[in-house]
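FIELD: query
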Amino acid sequence: MSRKLIRLSKSCLSDSEKKSVMNVLDKEFLGMGAEVEEFEHALTEFFGRPTVCVVSGTAALHLALQACGIRKGDEVIVPSLTYVASFQSISATGATPIACDISTNSLLLDLSDAEKRITSRTKAIMPVHYSGDVGDINALYAFAKKHGLRVIEDAAHAFGSVFEGKRVGSFGDIACFSFDGIKNITAGEGGCIVTDDERILSAIKDARLLGVEKDTDMRFSGQRSWDYDVSDQGWRYHMSNIMAAIGLEQLKRFPLLSAKRREVALLYDGLLKSSPCLTLLDRNYYFVVPHIYVVLIEGIYDRDKLRANLLSYGIQTGIHYLPNHKLSLYNKSCEFPLPKTELVYSKLLTLPLHPDLYKSDVEYVCEKLRLLLEGDKVKDE
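FIELD: result
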């Protein structure tokens, strides 16, 4: 009998999310209304500052950039090692994403490299909180202040992570989160923007509803705007009540979901730290809520064959991510080379991580990974 597949990631839902969605369906009001308003209030309480919900994490980044006045001719510095959503949100404004290198021990944006890429056109910096960590975010904000830059944090991986006793998103300029199906909490899809900047919040509230001014207030009161004005470019980026219903229940369950993610990551660390073939990321999982668990494979190995062999054992793996400067659309995004990004990418391997994993699943993954690596079964001679 074959072993069940250990999935790389998955949505982790309970009956409460299903009942909540059915309640919305029974009301037959599926768009943006009371549930979205309630979810925004719950998130505002969670972060301790105002939060606006949208249809995706990518939309959150796009609207935050647009609200900051980022437009054609501007440049935004962003690490190349991120999902393409970060770059797409920048180019969607007409601006140019400037690919930046990373630190090899944290896989986060390298400020010394970013310094080389500053020009008179640089208007913002977008740090990516890869796998849930923010690194030395104080240094990043000092860098932004020095150069007069807005900071739009791509915090899609970092929901619930803590820095110096404060939740990520509860401080700083603008933080954007994702609630897609496999994030730390999910709304099926969705995202949010968190900031104290009232001008930014107001602009985003209108822009998510095709630029219809004050339409948020009307929809939250169960009405529609029939006599309205539009003065800025908007998008159909609002969250639906179905998404918000799922998100509300996930937020209630977040203490359990986050504890399980940390538990799995700490177990991986304990089981893999002695392997001579692997380097583990420098993460403190007592403060970081990991979205993904990534290792670096040391030595000369055929990663594709390794992944195929792991899959034959019923273990899914991933590679987070193909650097954006290697994509056709963005291959001119870096004036200087990105040696650390390219080196790290050649070693990346993402192991299964989600709250439905059992201790025995993690032990099995580590056993097979070490067997294949240390047994030299995929070594490319």
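FIELD: remark
The longest helix spans residues 241-272.
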